[in-house]
């Protein structure tokens, strides 16, 4: 349940979302949200943030989504990158990045997914090797959001463990214009303000201080960013589902056939009520995941964050589908703005991790069933 502070934050962000609304300029919305302190609510106060956690940041994204103007980079810049740097970065890295991430003047993308590895950190082939005090980073990444508008990308690579010879994950800050770091836009059917890119890193030379945190703690640092990513993806999906339902409910109240609003018919009303219930249940799981993460329970948060992301993807798709169905032909027109959500809703099912991989996680980690791989 929301605290009084959370309710106040929710109302304030909702008001900002209403002022901008669907089709608004995301750059201006990002700037306004930064000036009001919403982008950095999860970051430490000593670096310009709000001193809250993912609980607060998820409220920001959900309410902007419910207003029809979600900011996908909220998932990446303050939630993943800001969290990792705040928890594990050096003092120099914190001072260099956190104030700008908090007020929106700087943005950071996140690069983990690879053509042949997906998000499987154990199969990542992007490697970093030492050259004197520098690092040389080589590899490829795909489906990386917002690289063109980000000042740097937090790249997940692998380094060789001197003791075992095995490769271990590490995170590196790669500024946008670093030589050897190139990007190519991916032609997507999805209509979104944030574009997707393929990245190529060809012996990208980085200074020693580009490495985030401890070279031996890469996996811990990686998962410290992935749990917030799943929680924020749930917030993104819940907001989208709420936005679609709001449009459908308004239409069902006003659209009259044979002197009766269509919303009076149970065949129309009940599916909308079911979609609302499922979104509300999903929010409870998301709030549980955020509370566990903010309390420092990374293991508990991992399970809850995966469940929240799974539930949100399913609830969002159902809400959008039912909203479009309620409007009939009008649900496919530009005037009502629901058709574009049909594709967008599927994102929460497949990214940043597919629902099947979440089912694998729950069956193995929660239920203790044997692995098939």
Descriptors:
373 residues, alpha+beta, three-stranded mixed beta sheet, globular
Q: What does this entry look like structurally?
A:
The radius of gyration is 21 Å and the shape is globular. Strand 2 and strand 3 form a beta hairpin. The protein contains ten helices and nine strands. 45% of the residues are buried. Helix content is 51%, strand content 16%. Helix 6 (218-254) runs antiparallel to helix 7 (266-294), helix 8 runs antiparallel to helix 9 and helix 8 packs antiparallel against helix 10 (355-366). With 373 residues, it is α+β, with helices and mostly antiparallel strands. The strands form three sheets. The chain has a four-stranded antiparallel β-sheet with strand order 2-3-7-6, with no helix packed on it. Strands 1-4-5 form a three-stranded mixed β-sheet, with helices on one face. A two-stranded antiparallel ribbon has the order 8-9. It has helices spanning 4-20, 26-35, 54-66, 73-88, 91-103, 218-254, 266-294, 298-327, 339-350, 355-366, and strands at 108-111, 127-131, 134-145, 152-160, 167-175, 181-185, 196-206, 256-257, 260-261.
Task: Please render the helix and strand layout as text.
Elements lengths: L3 H17 L5 H10 L18 H13 L6 H16 L2 H13 L4 E4 L15 E5 L2 E12 L6 E9 L6 E9 L5 E5 L10 E11 L11 H37 L1 E2 L2 E2 L4 H29 L3 H30 L11 H12 L4 H12 L7
Parallel strand pairs: 1-4
Antiparallel strand pairs: 2-3, 3-7, 4-5, 6-7, 8-9
């Amino acid at each position: 349940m929301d605290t009084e502070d959370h309710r106040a934050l929710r109302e304030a962000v909702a008001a900002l979302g209403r002022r901008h609304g669907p089709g608004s300029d995301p750059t201006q919305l990002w700037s306004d949200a930064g000036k009001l302190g919403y982008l950095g609510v999860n970051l430490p106060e000593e670096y310009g943030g709000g001193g809250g956690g993912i609980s607060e940041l998820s409220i920001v994204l959900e309410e902007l989504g419910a207003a029809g103007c979600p900011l996908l980079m909220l998932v990446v810049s303050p939630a993943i990158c800001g969290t990792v740097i705040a928890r594990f970065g050096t003092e120099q890295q914190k001072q260099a990045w956190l104030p700008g991430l908090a007020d929106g003047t700087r943005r950071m993308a996140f690069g983990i997914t690879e053509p042949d590895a997906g998000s499987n950190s154990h199969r990542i082939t992007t490697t970093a090797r030492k050259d004197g005090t520098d690092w040389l980073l080589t590899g490829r990444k795909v489906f990386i959001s917002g690289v063109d508008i980000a000042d740097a990308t937090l790249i997940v690579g692998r380094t060789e463990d001197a003791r075992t010879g095995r490769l271990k994950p590490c995170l590196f800050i790669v500024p946008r214009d670093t030589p050897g770091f190139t990007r190519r836009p991916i032609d997507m059917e999805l209509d979104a303000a944030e574009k997707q890119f393929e990245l190529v890193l060809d012996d990208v030379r980085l200074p020693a201080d580009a490495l985030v945190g401890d070279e031996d703690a890469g996996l811990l640092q990686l998962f410290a960013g992935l749990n917030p990513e799943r929680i924020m993806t749930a917030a993104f999906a819940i907001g989208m589902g709420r936005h679609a339902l709001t449009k459908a409910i308004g239409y069902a109240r006003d659209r009259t056939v044979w002197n009766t609003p269509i919303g009076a018919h149970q065949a129309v009303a009940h599916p909308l009520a079911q979609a609302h219930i499922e979104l509300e249940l999903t929010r409870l799981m998301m709030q549980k995941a955020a509370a566990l993460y903010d309390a420092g329970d990374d293991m508990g948060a991992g399970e809850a964050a995966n469940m929240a992301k799974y539930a949100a993807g399913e609830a969002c798709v159902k809400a959008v589908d039912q909203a479009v169905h309620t409007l009939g032909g009008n649900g496919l027109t530009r005037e009502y703005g629901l058709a574009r959500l049909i594709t967008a809703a599927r994102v929460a099912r497949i990214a940043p991790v597919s629902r099947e991989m979440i089912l694998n996680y729950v069956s193995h980690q929660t239920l203790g069933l044997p692995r098939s791989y």
